Amino acid sequence: MKTELIGMSLTELEDFLEAMGEKRFRGRQVYRWIYRNRVRSFAEMTDLPRGIREELAKIACLTLPCILQERISEDGTRKLLLQLKDRKTIEMVIIPHQVTGGTRYTACISSQVGCPVRCLFCAPGASGFERNLEVYEIVGQALLGLQWGISNVVFMGMGEPLLNYQAVLQTVGLLIDHQGINIGQRHITISTAGEARGIRWLAREGLQVTLAVSLHSARDELRDVLVPLNRKYPLAVLREALNFYQGKTRRRVTLEYVLLDKVNTGWEDAQALIRFTRGLLVNVNLIPYNEVECGEYRCPQREVIDRFKMWLTRAGVNVTLREEKGADIEAACGQLKTKKVNGGQQENTRQR
Ligand code: SF4
Asked: Which of 115, 262, 297, 329 lies deepest, with the highest CB count within 10 Å?
């Protein structure tokens, strides 16, 4: 079987070329071709002698996820259905943002096929977990996204990134390397459902990426139901991990809060959330729920959303209300979902 070179670090590529009997600097050349110039074949690596290119083509490969389907929203959001080598499918979304002087693009990428966390309102969670993605499958999504000029990457697609910790960290290392892909650390967000052990590990990495926590409730009895990971790491444990993280990184954390009508938008929910944020450096991102077919939850009326936001703001909490993107192609938050494609193969997709 051929060795996959996408996903390898500079040192791994140097080792690989050395094991082929070549000088180590050839590994650096290959690294640049893969991550900086983003070529798709060894034949395009024109500063390598032909013999090395031919040998590489025999023993190694450069595999990116295959785009099976592409949908583009009226607002420019692009949803890609990607197929992996073992024919499993994942989704990534490319989201445009208007900024002064032009448009920026964010890639929302997946870290697992399915998800073991099983959040109640999330389709991949409901359909179960299949496997972790390999580094080449995660960084491959970003390499695809670079075709559309992405400058930001969020790990908010399918899966719990901190449960595929090593692969996600290795991917972040490749994304931020100045000699390679070169995305600024502050342009990368890792989103977790509250994997407290992983948050503590991340705190010690010395990174400047943004951490987002899908909180959705600050009441244990409700969060136990909405985000079952809460039974393993209750709010007090999660809060301690966030304290630890902020002590190490001094970085503001985003708390994602999906607004579910008559579920988590009452006065007591707001008060619990206010108590949870006290003493933490956080921004609360309110996300009106996207109603999906067959979903039992509803999006609150605008006045309920505004009232909830007002309660938090009056208590001095930093709050933002997420702008909807890609709702018409089911790429908006909570709309990635399980459906049948390609003769019955499961497509499991989501976006936090
Ligand atoms: S919301 Fe995230 S963590 Fe929860 S089941 Fe879905 S993908 Fe997994």
From this structure: 115
